[in-house]
């Protein structure tokens, strides 16, 4: 088999390889603290190195039988196995897609259309159970399918911690329910759902109903094993754990046959005949490399992120009036993603704060003001009952593998200075 050649110089490869856990990447050293890892992560050096040959010398179509194709086919197989190992699946249960949105759409559309076909495309509509705090990739797709009169669905409410109760999921299931889709962890407040309990409850009471979980935010942050979770499908998103954008995967259990889950794309026989289209070997190689990093370093990465999150939470909560601070999500830190801090500060306008700090701090707000005087508050914050005066001051701060202690210290001081500038009493704020 032909050996891939690295198109970059050895110096370029080595510079990127030096940045390990807790060390800033060159791309992060631009004077702006990056605490928006839940939006996207920088590409890990290992992923960049793995992709280099496929930018230049390794261009073959993995479906081709000649040497060029075989090299790329081997890369696909290696990456598929790495992703499978990362989540406790078998390689043949991992299907590469273009994005988390596509994976979510496929899980929903595939199960819904398979049911409609089984029912002879009658007036009977498949029913889906989901939660009130799902990512738009799930929520908006269900709304679209309902508008097209292809599905009905029920959004199960969450409690004040953003958690879904298994009993509420079971109560929402009807004779027409074909799928339960509940995210593994929330992208805004970091709440980790009890998916294992939900899946087992559904399986015991309604064994014909499929269970899907969107684990976009969980991969690379907490341990995941699809067999332990008991789900039939799981969404995995590359750019959330150090891989490039434009590549993701959908785990589909081998127990889910084609009569329960139809294809989303039709054409060639790629992805075991279930997802047509020539595979993007370049991006898949990067995803496979990132998966290997996660599998090897997850314990250390998780501990590093939790330490940074707790440090930031303590610094902010300790310097602001107690009655002005609300930490969103479960009170027990272990119930939230280790890298995610959703903090609401009464009296702060978070949109204004982030606009003022745009060149110094990258983070996300939980609400946005409009020129009409109204406010667009996150649906997640509404669902968990955050009062408007707190919701308007919500910041989502998320760290990662290459966030440093210095980043956390700098971010805390920037936020506290901005809070003081907006009239909030701040104690021990450094000048």
From TrEMBL:
Belongs to the class-V pyridoxal-phosphate-dependent aminotransferase family. NifS/IscS subfamily. Residues 33-410 form the Aminotransferase class V domain. Gene3D superfamilies: 1.10.260.50, Aspartate Aminotransferase, domain 1, Type I PLP-dependent aspartate aminotransferase-like (Major domain). Pfam families: Aminotran_5. GO terms for molecular function: iron-sulfur cluster binding; metal ion binding; transferase activity. Transmembrane segments: none annotated. This is Aminotransferase class V domain-containing protein. Keywords: Iron, Iron-sulfur, Metal-binding, Pyridoxal phosphate, Transferase. Its cofactor is pyridoxal 5'-phosphate.
């Amino acid at each position: 088999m032909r050996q891939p050649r690295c198109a970059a110089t050895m110096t370029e490869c080595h510079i990127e390889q030096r940045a390990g856990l807790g060390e800033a990447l060159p791309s992060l050293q631009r004077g702006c603290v990056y605490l928006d890892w839940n939006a996207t992560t920088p590409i890990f050096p290992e992923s960049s190195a793995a992709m280099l040959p496929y930018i230049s010398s390794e261009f073959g179509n993995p479906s081709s039988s000649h040497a060029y194709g075989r090299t790329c086919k081997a890369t696909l197989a290696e990456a598929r196995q790495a992703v499978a190992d990362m989540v406790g699946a078998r390689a043949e249960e991992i299907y590469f897609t273009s994005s988390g949105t596509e994976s979510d759409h496929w899980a929903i559309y595939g199960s819904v259309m398979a049911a409609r076909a089984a029912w002879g495309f009658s007036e009977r509509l498949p029913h889906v159970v989901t939660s009130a705090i799902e990512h738009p990739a799930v929520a908006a797709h269900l709304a679209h399918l309902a508008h097209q009169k292809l599905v009905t669905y029920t959004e199960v409410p969450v409690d004040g911690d953003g958690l879904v109760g298994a009993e509420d999921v079971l109560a929402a299931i009807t004779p027409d329910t074909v799928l339960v889709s509940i995210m593994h962890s929330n992208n805004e407040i970091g709440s980790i759902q009890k998916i294992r309990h939900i899946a087992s409850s559904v399986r015991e009471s309604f064994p014909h109903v499929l269970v899907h979980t969107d684990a976009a935010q969980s991969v690379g942050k907490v341990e995941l094993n699809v067999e332990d979770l008991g789900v039939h499908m799981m969404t995995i998103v590359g750019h959330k754990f150090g891989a490039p954008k434009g590549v993701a995967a959908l785990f589909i259990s081998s127990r889910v046959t084609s009569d329960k889950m139809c294809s989303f794309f039709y054409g060639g026989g790629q992805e075991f005949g279930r997802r047509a289209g020539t595979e993007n070997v370049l991006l898949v190689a990067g995803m496979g490399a990132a998966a290997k990093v996660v599998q090897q370093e997850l314990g250390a990465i998780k501990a590093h992120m939790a330490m940074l999150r707790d440090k930031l939470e303590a610094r902010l909560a300790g310097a602001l009036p107690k009655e002005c601070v609300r930490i969103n999500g479960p009170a027990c830190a272990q119930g939230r993603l280790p890298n995610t801090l959703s903090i609401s500060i009464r009296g702060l306008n978070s949109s204004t704060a982030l606009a003022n700090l745009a060149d110094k701090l990258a983070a996300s707000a939980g609400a946005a003001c409009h020129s009409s005087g109204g406010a667009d508050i996150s649906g997640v914050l509404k669902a968990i009952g955050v009062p408007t005066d707190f919701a308007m001051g919500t910041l989502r701060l998320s760290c990662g593998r290459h966030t440093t202690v210095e980043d956390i210290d700098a971010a805390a001081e920037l936020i506290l200075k901005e809070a003081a500038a907006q009239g909030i009493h701040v104690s021990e704020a450094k000048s």
